[in-house]
Specification:
four-stranded antiparallel beta sheet; 8 strands; about 40% strand; alpha+beta; globular
């Protein structure tokens, strides 16, 4: 397993994360803007947040192993760096035990 983070580019209206899908990556936004939308596939989608450079999306599904609660959709060309579930778990396991416990608590 590589310790390198992955870099991804998303075009406007492209989904980074889809509501209901299991999360395989968390993304740190390096540039661009992303809309967090609940019910994106329905008749009445609701934007609950707009995130941008420095923000992270998808992290909760790496903690709780549950499907995404909302979709993340690029508003403009967006560049992210991602950490996979496997990379996240490896880093968590290698963390100081006190910090690991704090991280798990924060994830709850």
């Amino acid at each position: 397993m590589s310790d390198k983070l992955n870099r991804f580019a998303f075009e406007p209206n492209e989904k980074l994360l889809k509501e209901g899908d299991m999360g395989e990556f968390a993304y740190l936004i390096l540039s661009g803007k992303v809309s967090i939308v609940k019910g994106a596939m329905g008749d009445n989608p609701a934007t609950i947040a707009v995130v941008e450079k420095g923000d992270v999306v998808g992290e909760m599904s790496l903690f709780d192993d549950r499907p995404h609660m909302a979709s993340a959709i690029a508003i403009e060309k967006t560049i992210v760096t991602g950490i996979s579930r496997e990379q996240f778990q490896t880093r968590l396991e290698n963390m100081d035990p006190v910090m690991r416990s704090i991280m798990k608590l924060l994830g709850q």
